[in-house]
Design goal:
Elements (H helix, E strand, L loop, with lengths): L5 E6 L5 H10 L3 E6 L2 E6 L1 H10 L5 E10 L3 H9 L13 E8 L6 H20 L12 E8 L2 E7 L21 H10 L7 E4 L6 H11 L20 H12 L9 E5 L2 H13 L6 E5 L12 E5 L14 H12 L3 E7 L14 E7 L2 E10 L4 H8 L1
Parallel strand pairs: 5-6, 8-9, 8-11, 9-10, 11-12
Antiparallel strand pairs: 1-3, 1-4, 2-3, 4-7, 6-7, 12-14, 13-14
Helix pairs in contact: 2-7, 3-4, 5-6
Organism: Chryseobacterium carnipullorum
Keywords: Methyltransferase, RNA-binding, Transferase
Protein name: Class I SAM-dependent RNA methyltransferase
Length: about 375
C-alpha cells in the first residue's frame, strides 16, 4: 500500500456531503470530490489518522485497495482468490466484511459476503495451512465490499466501529439523533461556538454535546479507544500520538452558554449521564422546562432542536407544531431557530415560512431541516436597524 498517496473514500449521510468536504479541505485533504453520501480525497497515512480522529460528519473512512469486474460468482471468487491477502492482514488476525450491493448479477449481499469470506479463508489455508478467524463484533481487520452492477471494489475500513459512535453515549433515551447527523445539522445551522446555543427539547443531549464539542474545537473522537487502522501492519503509533497531541493543543475555551430544556425528567437524566461521560458538566446547563412556557434568556441565540414526530414518538397534542410557532413568535424575538421533522404536514402548522429547507435523513426517515428567522417587527425594519 502506497502510504504517501492514499485514495480515500469518506462515507456520510445524504445532505451532509458539502459540510464533510469543507471539513476535509480544512484538515488538509487533496483532490476533494463530492459524491453521493460520500467524499473522495487523497492524503498520506498521517492525514488518514487525522480525519478519523477529527472529522465530525464522517461515518466511516475507507481505503479502496482492489477493483475488478465480475460477471458471475465463479469469476468473483477466482479474482478474489488471486489477491495477496497477506498484504492486508495476517493469518493470526480476525476479520469481518461489510457489504453494499447494487447488482442484477449479485442480488444477495449475504451470499457475496460469504463468498468473499471463503476466498480469504481458502487463500490462507492454501498458502499457510492455517485459517484466520471471522469475527463480526470486534474484528482486527475490517473489509468493505462494494458491488455496483459488475464493478467490484474491495476497501480497507480504517475506522472500525462507525464514527458516530463517539464514546460518550451511555444512555440512549428515546429516539436519539445520530451524533454525525447532529453535528452536521449544527454546522448547516452555522454554529461555530460564538454566542449562545439552546436546544429546547434536548432529549438525551446529543445536540448539546456536539454543540459543545464544536464550540471548544474538541476532536470528534477524543473519547474513542480504538480505530481499525491501529491493527494494520504499517500502523505508526508515534505518528498517531503526535497527531492527537497537535489536535488537542487546539482546544479552546468557550465563553458562551449551551443550554438544554426538557419536560421529561427521564430524558434529562439520560442527558445528564451522557454529558458527564463527555466531561461537559461545566459547559452544558440543563433545565426542567416546558419550551412552550419559556422566554428568550440568552443574547445572541441560536436554537437547534429535534422535536418529536409521529414515526419516532407519538404526539397526542394536535396543536404541538402550532405551539412551536406561537412560542417562536411571542417569546423568541430576533432569534435564528432550526428544527428537523419528517412530518411535513404538521410543520405547516408552525405558521411561519421557513427561510431555508434542507433534505436530510434521520435513519430511514426522510426529513426536512428547517430554518426560521424571528424578527421583532418586520424584516424590513430589522434590516434598517442593522444598517
Amino acid at each position: 500500500m502506497d502510504t504517501e498517496n492514499l485514495k480515500i473514500q469518506i462515507k456520510t449521510f445524504f445532505g451532509l456531503e458539502q459540510i464533510l468536504a469543507e471539513e476535509i479541505k480544512k484538515l488538509g485533504g487533496k483532490n476533494v470530490e463530492i459524491k453521493n453520501r460520500a467524499v473522495n480525497c487523497e492524503g498520506d497515512l498521517g492525514f488518514l489518522y487525522k480525519i478519523n480522529y477529527s472529522a465530525r460528519t464522517a461515518l466511516k473512512i475507507l481505503i479502496p485497495v482492489f477493483e475488478f469486474k465480475a460477471f458471475n460468482q465463479h469469476q468473483f471468487y477466482n479474482k478474489l482468490s488471486a489477491i495477496a491477502w497477506e498484504d492486508y492482514m495476517s493469518v493470526d488476525q480476525s476479520f469481518a466484511i461489510d457489504s453494499t450491493v447494487n447488482s442484477e448479477t449479485f442480488k444477495h449481499s449475504q451470499f457475496v459476503t460469504l463468498k468473499m469470506k471463503d476466498a480469504i479463508v481458502d487463500y490462507f489455508q492454501d498458502k499457510f495451512h492455517r485459517r484466520p478467524d471471522v469475527e463480526t463484533k470486534s474484528p482486527d481487520i475490517k473489509f468493505h465490499l462494494h458491488i455496483d452492477r459488475e464493478l467490484v471494489t474491495i476497501s480497507l475500513d480504517s475506522s472500525g466501529d462507525p464514527l458516530f459512535k463517539r464514546g460518550y453515549r451511555k444512555d440512549q433515551g428515546e429516539a436519539p439523533i445520530n451524533e454525525v447527523l447532529a453535528s452536521g445539522m449544527l454546522q448547516l445551522a452555522g454554529w461555530d461556538g460564538k454566542g449562545n446555543f439552546l436546544d429546547p427539547m434536548c432529549g438525551s443531549g446529543t445536540l448539546l454535546i456536539e454543540a459543545a464539542m464544536i464550540a471548544m474545537d474538541l476532536p470528534a473522537q477524543i473519547f474513542r479507544r480504538r480505530f481499525a487502522f491501529q491493527n494494520w501492519a504499517n500502523y505508526d503509533a508515534d505518528l498517531f500520538s503526535k497527531i492527537k497531541e497537535v489536535r488537542i493543543n487546539r482546544v479552546r475555551e468557550f465563553t458562551g452558554k449551551i443550554v438544554g430544556y426538557d419536560i421529561d425528567s427521564g430524558m434529562l437524566y439520560a442527558a445528564r449521564t451522557n454529558i458527564e461521560a463527555a466531561e461537559m458538566e461545566d459547559v452544558i446547563e440543563l433545565k426542567t422546562k416546558d419550551f412552550f412556557e419559556s422566554k428568550k434568556e440568552l443574547f445572541p441565540l441560536l436554537m437547534v432542536f429535534n422535536p418529536p414526530y409521529d414515526e419516532r414518538i407519538s404526539i397526542n397534542d394536535e396543536d404541538f407544531y402550532k405551539k412551536i410557532g406561537d412560542t417562536f413568535k411571542t417569546n423568541y424575538p430576533n432569534t435564528l431557530a432550526w428544527l428537523i421533522s419528517s412530518d411535513l404536514e404538521a410543520v405547516k402548522k408552525i405558521g411561519l415560512r421557513p427561510s431555508r429547507k434542507i433534505k436530510l435523513f434521520n435513519g430511514k426517515l426522510e426529513t426536512r431541516f428547517l430554518q426560521y428567522e424571528m424578527y421583532e417587527g418586520t424584516k424590513k425594519l430589522h434590516k434598517i436597524e442593522k444598517e
